[in-house]
Design goal:
about 550 residues, three-stranded antiparallel β-sheet, mainly alpha
Length: about 550
């Protein structure tokens, strides 16, 4: 006589099954996914310890992924030992900002001399005309203040923020998908993206902008969970302990002070204070957070959720973000504001005194306003051609990456073989990991499908993050723009791929065969992306390659 047993319950690796429809609290505050009890049994862990282990893994996993990302970003960070691409602007602007509070006009052709003898450049220098706000330069300058005016010094803080952004994305992905595994997967994909790696190892502003935008996104996610928990707590509970919807409570409850939304406003102010496109992100995220509020009130039982949102949430949301962001932006100009207005301070600092601005406004405010209008004219009028400019239509397929550094080492130098016929190349190419980006094209289609046809709020959040960093550039078809601007929305591409992989793994309750096929497909895809990153590593980090090996990595003619 044989005894049959039921097949084992598959291990939960993604978002939990939908909560029961009769418990409103479960829909407002869904639980985090946890591995099934059979996993703990297989590992020899007591069942009652599973929750504690899950909480440890919730931080241990992201920290491990961030550690790997940090090693990749700090490995030979000072190489190439040169001022590469636009570091010629931002490294020097940061040095002046941290030393004298405002950007300076540097002597021409000083890139090599300042590396050899940075103390030979006497400050203060004459004020310099710059076209980006100062936050990013303060950040880069912090590394120079700690480690000197060297390639390692001016790249240090972008490497720190690049590493921390991987940690943040792991935690953001965990909160978004209710799965530590998928959160860590999203962070791991960001860790092995070539564009994110190169930008983390270069003193440019866009990585700093990406960091503050991602921080704001994470703050709004936390705020969403906290607000929904408050709303759930206000709802009535029946005799069986289940939370019930209530139209009056759902439409009239005030959610009180929301510090995470204020933190998002601060982060967006810092993003705006790094580059002006942070202001566009503020608009996108502002709409996103109030739509989340309307959805929360609808789930809680509101008959007119959007009207309730407009009455109770719209104005507090505006006050928590827009004025806060503007205040942070103005404060970021403190060094320029406090500089002398007698022609020896920041650029245009004495414009109001010279032109006789309105007496009822502070002279620094009218001077700053004039400065900003001149900068706006510069940006909209920037149509001069550039070798590496690209149209945003080509970004997702990596049509035209940007070469930050290129040289052909002589035989016997910089790792090039010491033979007469040896030809070598050394390049830093701002190129996303191709298989990751091409996979992300399909993942975005999946995300849009989930959002439009399944009304999946997670897909909508990811789509909003991509749209905020990507779509505005289509409005500037005549302007000179570059592919590396796309680093701002790379984290959301990684979230999209992680979400698609979660779907490949199969929903809760899938058969063992379905799970196995999904795991094999997902595993092969992730391993191919990692291999692709390793293959392109030399041209991300400026390692010397034989010319033939370098050519083999130029998969498209437009990459040269």
């Amino acid at each position: 006589m044989t005894t049959s047993t039921a097949p084992p319950t598959p291990v939960e690796l993604h978002a939990p099954a939908p909560p029961p429809r009769d418990d409103v609290r479960a829909r407002l505050v869904p639980p985090y996914a946890r591995p099934s009890g059979q996993l703990w049994a297989a590992l020899g862990v007591p069942a009652d310890a599973g929750g504690a282990v899950s909480r440890v893994l919730a931080w241990a996993g992201p920290l491990l992924v961030a550690l790997v990302a940090g090693v990749l970003r700090f490995w030979h960070l000072g190489s190439p030992k040169a001022v590469i691409f636009d570091e010629t602007y931002y490294a020097k602007d940061a040095w002046a900002t941290i030393r004298q509070g405002y950007e300076a006009s540097w002597p021409k052709d000083v890139d090599k001399s300042v590396i050899a003898n940075p103390d030979g450049i006497a400050l203060p220098l004459d004020p310099g005309y710059v076209v980006h706000p100062p936050v990013g330069k303060w950040v880069i300058g912090l590394g120079e203040w700690m480690f000197g005016f060297t390639p390692f010094g001016w790249r240090f803080m972008t490497a720190v923020l690049g590493t921390l952004s991987v940690l943040m994305l792991c935690r953001i992905g965990r909160r978004l998908f209710r799965s530590t595994f998928l959160g860590c997967l999203a962070g791991a994909l960001l860790a092995v993206d070539g564009l994110h790696l190169v930008m983390s190892r270069t003193a440019l502003l866009d990585l700093v902008l990406m960091f503050f935008v991602l921080a704001a996104f994470g703050c709004l996610l936390i705020d969403r969970d906290r607000a929904r928990a408050r709303l759930a707590a206000a709802l009535p509970v029946d005799e069986e302990g289940r939370t019930r919807p209530d139209a009056l409570i759902a439409e009239t409850t005030r959610l009180g002070l929301r510090p995470w939304r204020i933190a998002a406003g601060v982060s967006l102010g810092l993003a705006f204070g790094t580059k002006w496109n942070g202001l566009v992100v503020l608009a996108f995220f502002g709409v996103l957070t109030v739509l989340w509020d309307a959805a929360s009130r609808r789930v809680a039982g509101a008959g007119t959720p959007y009207a309730a949102m407009l009455r109770r949430d719209a104005l507090p949301a505006f006050l928590s973000t827009v004025p806060v962001a503007v205040l942070v932006y103005v404060l970021s100009w403190t060094g320029w504001i406090l500089s002398p207005d007698n022609g020896k301070g920041g650029y245009f600092r004495n414009w109001s005194a010279e032109q006789g601005g309105p007496a009822w406004l502070p002279d620094w405010l009218t001077s700053l306003w004039h400065y900003e209008t001149e900068v706006y004219k510069f940006h909209v009028g920037l149509t001069e051609g550039h070798t590496y400019e690209s149209n945003p239509w080509s970004w997702l397929v990596l049509g035209r990456p940007v070469s930050y550094f290129y040289e052909s080492p002589s035989p016997g130098t910089d790792g090039c073989p010491a033979t007469e016929t040896a030809k070598c190349a050394r390049e830093v190419l701002a190129l996303g990991t191709p298989l990751l980006w091409w996979t992300a094209c399909f993942a975005l289609l999946y995300v849009l499908w989930r959002w439009v046809f399944r009304r999946d709020w997670r897909a909508g959040a990811i789509a909003c993050g991509v749209a905020a960093g990507y779509l505005p550039w289509f409005n500037y078809q005549e302007r000179t723009i570059f592919f590396f601007y796309a680093v701002v929305f790379v984290p959301y591409l990684c979230l999209a791929v992680a979400m698609m992989i979660g779907a490949l793994l199969g929903p809760a309750g899938s058969t063992e065969r379905r799970r196995a096929l999904g795991a094999i497909t997902a595993g092969v895809l992730v391993l191919l992306i990692i291999w692709n990153f390793i293959y392109f590593w030399p041209i991300y980090t400026g390692e010397t390659l034989p010319m033939e090996s370098w050519r083999n990595r130029m998969w498209l003619d437009t990459w040269v």
